User: Fold this.
Amino acid sequence: MATTLITNIGELFTSDPEGASTVEDAALVIEGSTIAWVGSAAGAPAADEMVDAGGRAVIPGFVDSHSHLVFAGDRAQEFAARMTGTPYAAGGIRTTVAATRAATDEQLTSHVARLVAEMRRQGTTTIEIKSGYGLTVHDEARSLAVARQFTEETTFLGAHVVPEGDPGEYVDLVTGPMLDAAKEHARWIDVFCERGAFDVDQARAILDAGAAAGLRGRLHANQLTYGGGVRLAAELGLVAVDHCTYLADEDVAALRDSGTIATLLPGVEFSTKQPYPDARRLLDAGVRVALASDCNPGSCFTSSVPLCIALAVREMGMSPAEALHAATYVGAAALDHDDVGVLAPGKRADLVLLDAPSHVHLAYRPGVPLVLGTWVGGRPT
Ligand code: NIG
Ligand code: FE
Assistant:
């Protein structure tokens, strides 16, 4: 199999299971789709091809474990109103539902393709995509079928909001015919557990039905208010619970005890003017923290993981190394993967060459496009 040596790496950020870890004056060998060797440049083996990193940093590709890319329409006016004082509310989702139902499959597919390409340009190499803007049997199934063209990490979010009619009947639809139609296209099931969306009992019923259909659970919880969502995720032993903005001490303790990953989405707080979640409090309590974009047309229309890293460092008490680890290794763990988000022999060769000498520049140079090159499965893109 063809081998590529990337050498003269000023700083290699390997993002190990134990935490952030760097090697200076490093090299890395790719063989086919995987990493074959990592170490000091002076001791690197020969390879078929050589890439000179010129003293720049190499990091794992970002693992964005939370996005809502299947939608149509735009809510720029809602964003503008928020910036001058209108609060964010879950109900805005229905605006996007109407636009998504009216779009053709081709329109949805080309829109997702555009957003996935935008993510790639910014260094994201693994993407989770949710449904949740169809909210009929047909529109949820086709949203997931569209998402599956781009990733295996697809999530059924029929329980995003009650689109119309009686909430009890809608939960019956989600746990019955909609789940039946969705399950072949999805790996995960998610619920927006929040005031104005679904309560803890409804979330439990939907996650139980999903589990019975073979889907793994994840949850949107404690985004806008305190509540029982995070504790439900911990009780069910979910791999991750996302948002975690409003946490009581007992929520933090439950996350620590269950090992459920708290996925923080600071682009949301940026775009809704809510307080940022307290990553430091979670890390100090021994909770695992992931970072993801939550790219969606309502609460957060950024696809930029580097922006999320910069916000986490500036506003949430994370060091640059903790934030990058959270957006790579822990993001992968939040999708139950250990083959990406880490640069070590045997792992998938998903990596990014930064136009900067160190990972710190991701936060130190906010808003600057620092991604110079990306390899996905060993292939330069
Ligand atoms: O993750 N929280 C629920 N869903 C999205 C927002 C969806 C929308 O406003 O369109 C989120 O923030
Ligand atoms: Fe979300």
Summary: The chain has two domains: 3-61+341-380, 63-334. The chain has a mean pLDDT of 97. Residues 127 and 264 are 16 Å apart (CA to CA). The radius of gyration is 20 Å.
